[in-house]
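Table S2 (continued). Query chain:
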Amino acid sequence: MRLHHVNIAVHPDLLEAEMGFLAGCLGLSRLDPGPELAERARWYEFPDGSQVHLSRTTDPISTRPGHIALDVGDALDEIDQRLVAAGLSPQRQQGREPAVSLVSDPAGHLWELRAPD
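Corresponding output:
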């Protein structure tokens, strides 16, 4: 068994920034959701085939205390640098082993980025 995808809500005004976060900061590949979903859905894929789907909504979004946790392998420092370059503020958790950075994406979702155990 493995995770196929998560679907996260994004306000339409933040969609482009969220797409930039997934592709530019995390390095995910954009997928074509097909013609029936192309207007309302954005899909991204990790190298292992698991996906993040974006759904537009104008409803208020509350994601805390929930979060999305990723094992980013040896790329934690590199990803933190891309996040800072994108104007985001990753917070490295002091004294944590393995190393962990927390960052809020443009839509307000909390991501836990973990080095390998």
